[in-house]
Write a structure and sequence with these properties.
CATH architecture: 3-Layer(aba) Sandwich
CATH class: Alpha Beta
Number of strands: 9
Order of helices and strands: HHHEHEHEEHEEEHEE
Largest sheet: 7 strands, mixed
CATH superfamily: Vaccinia Virus protein VP39
CATH topology: Rossmann fold
Radius of gyration: 16 Å
Number of helices: 7
Distance between the termini: 38 Å
Strand order of the largest sheet: 3-2-1-4-5-9-8
């Protein structure tokens, strides 16, 4: 997570993305440096599976890649201008304005991911959201998250606006996920082959 000289408030994150949607859409790299992790995730999803993209932004490049791989993608984002742009890029897609902190879609998915979104939640919010995400997963379904390399807070930026980041420790993620019925498959802090993102791949436990 990138430090920023001006502190950010977690309560401002949605507002920042609403105001910076055009900038984000214009400057978000379309080179898929996330591909290796996305492919590990997809290896755990059945062909043509239903995938939930949490914090999907404008729907590209990640949701677009998942769709190209034959997945049926539902993209959610708390910032309505991001969803508006996703609908322009892929009008046939399933795009919804929704906040993961109170997510209740009434359906379960073959996989879910939150790339560069989950880590904008506070530590307390992450603890409460993990079981909420688990309830949206079928037995055996993977969950892919970008987190921090260790417990703490950091501050990045979107355009000219500072934005808040937080993380639990690796051990606490494992504990919280286990309590929600998921097991950690892989965790790599500051992966040099993925633009130094810290990535966590977990999987919903199979039903007994």
């Amino acid at each position: 997570m990138e430090n920023h000289p001006k502190r950010a408030d977690a309560r401002d994150t949605v507002r920042v993305y609403e105001g910076q949607a055009a900038f984000f859409d214009a400057t978000r790299p379309q080179v898929l440096f996330e591909k290796a992790w996305l492919d590990r995730f997809l290896a755990l999803v059945p062909e043509g599976g239903q995938v939930l993209d949490i914090g999907c932004g404008t729907g590209r490049p990640i949701a677009a890649y998942l769709r190209d791989k034959g997945m049926c993608v539902t993209g959610i984002d708390a910032a309505a201008p991001m969803i508006e742009r996703a609908r322009r890029h892929a009008p046939e897609g399933d795009w919804r304005v929704a906040d993961m902190r109170d997510l209740e879609l009434g359906q379960v998915f073959d996989g879910a991911l939150s790339w560069d979104a989950f880590f904008h939640l506070t530590a307390a919010e992450q603890r409460s959201v993990i079981p909420r995400l688990a309830r949206h997963l079928k037995p055996g379904a993977p969950l892919l998250l970008t987190v921090g390399p260790s417990a703490g807070e950091a501050f990045g930026h979107v355009g000219t606006d500072p934005v808040y980041h937080a993380s639990l420790s690796r051990d606490e993620y494992a504990t919280r996920l286990a309590e929600a019925g998921l097991s950690v498959v892989s965790f790599l802090a500051e992966d040099p082959d993925c633009d130094y993102h810290s990535v966590l791949l977990a999987r919903r436990d199979q039903a007994p």
